[in-house]
Design goal:
By secondary structure, this protein is mostly helical. The protein has 7 helices and no strands. It is elongated and about 50 Å long.
Length: 135
């Protein structure tokens, strides 16, 4: 999706880690599907993680976490893969992204779902993948 998207993912991951460090360990993950599908938490690790997070803790505005999540809530629907872009009729990734969208922006999920129902009603494998994801 591009370098800027990767930077946003990394920033979000770092801010999530900072937020999690401030919460109690037993508190559940707030956005598990979003974290797994969009942010790819398990893939983002680098030798400079601690340094970068330390910089964010010292110099970032206190509301940066809120601003970043507001951005995701307002714009995630634009990143959801289009069902027209599919490989071998496997819509698993599309369904996972829709699940992430539903998790953080339910209204946008409903709007996009209605559009998909109208434009992609004949894609039976899409609807099977959506059902399998619990959507």
């Amino acid at each position: 999706m591009g370098e800027d998207f990767e930077r946003l993912r990394l920033l979000t991951h770092d801010l999530q880690k900072i937020q999690a460090d401030g919460r109690q360990a037993e508190q559940p993950q707030l956005t598990p599907t979003f974290d797994e599908v969009v942010i790819h938490k398990q893939e983002l690790s680098a030798p400079d993680d601690a340094s970068r997070r330390g910089y964010l803790q010292r110099f970032a505005s206190k509301d940066l976490w809120t601003q970043v999540m507001d951005y995701w809530r307002a714009n995630l629907h634009q990143f959801v893969p289009d069902p027209l872009d599919v490989h071998k009729s496997d819509y698993t990734l599309h369904a996972q992204w829709m699940l992430a969208l539903k998790e953080i922006a339910p209204r946008d999920y409903g709007t996009l779902l209605a559009t998909w129902k109208s434009e992609h009603h004949r894609r039976s494998n899409l609807w099977k993948a959506m059902a399998k994801a619990g959507l």
